[in-house]
């Protein structure tokens, strides 16, 4: 069963942070750790799971991720 989750990864202590959302936390953190996909986490070597929060529904996880990322990230989403 899929379990929506919001999570934070870090490159190191006091390092770069990345906020994400997924329906499979174990698989997604493995993908980040192994640098499977190009992008922010690969570029900045962000791969250490430091926090996560499980949600009942994907919609609530999406809203929580957007609150964590803040208004600037919402503006970037609209530009796409």
Provide an overview of this structure.
There is one protein chain. By secondary structure, this protein is an alpha+beta fold. The model has no long low-confidence stretch (mean pLDDT 91). The chain is globular and about 30 Å long. It has a three-stranded antiparallel β-sheet. It has helices spanning 25-33, 40-43, 58-69, 71-79, and strands at 5-10, 17-22, 48-54. A hairpin with a 6-residue loop joins strand 1 and strand 2 (17-22).
Throw out a few tags for this protein.
80 residues, alpha+beta, three-stranded antiparallel sheet, 3 strands, 42% helix
Task: Summarize, please.
The chain has helices spanning 25-33, 40-43, 58-69, 71-79, and strands at 5-10, 17-22, 48-54. With 80 residues, the chain is an alpha+beta fold. The model has no long low-confidence stretch (mean pLDDT 91).
Tell me the strand percentage band.
Answer: 15-25%
| Class inferred from helices and paired strands | alpha+beta
Distance between the termini: 31 Å
Q: How many beta-strand segments?
A: 3
Helix and strand pattern: EEHHEHH
What proportion of the residues is helical, as a percent range? 40-55%
| Low-confidence residue ranges | none
Radius of gyration computed on alpha carbons: 13 Å
Major sheet size, sense and barrel closure: 3 strands, antiparallel
Output mean pLDDT.
91
Strand order of the largest sheet: 2-1-3
Global outline: globular
What's the assembly state of these chains? single chain
Helical element count? 4
């Amino acid at each position: 069963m899929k379990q929506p989750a919001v999570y934070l990864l870090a490159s190191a202590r006091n390092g770069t942070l990345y906020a994400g959302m997924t329906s499979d936390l174990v698989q997604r953190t493995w993908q980040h750790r192994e640098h499977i996909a190009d992008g922010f986490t690969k570029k900045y070597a962000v791969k250490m799971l430091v926090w996560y929060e499980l949600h009942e529904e994907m919609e609530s996880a999406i809203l929580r991720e957007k609150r964590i990322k803040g208004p600037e990230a919402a503006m970037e989403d609209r530009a796409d």
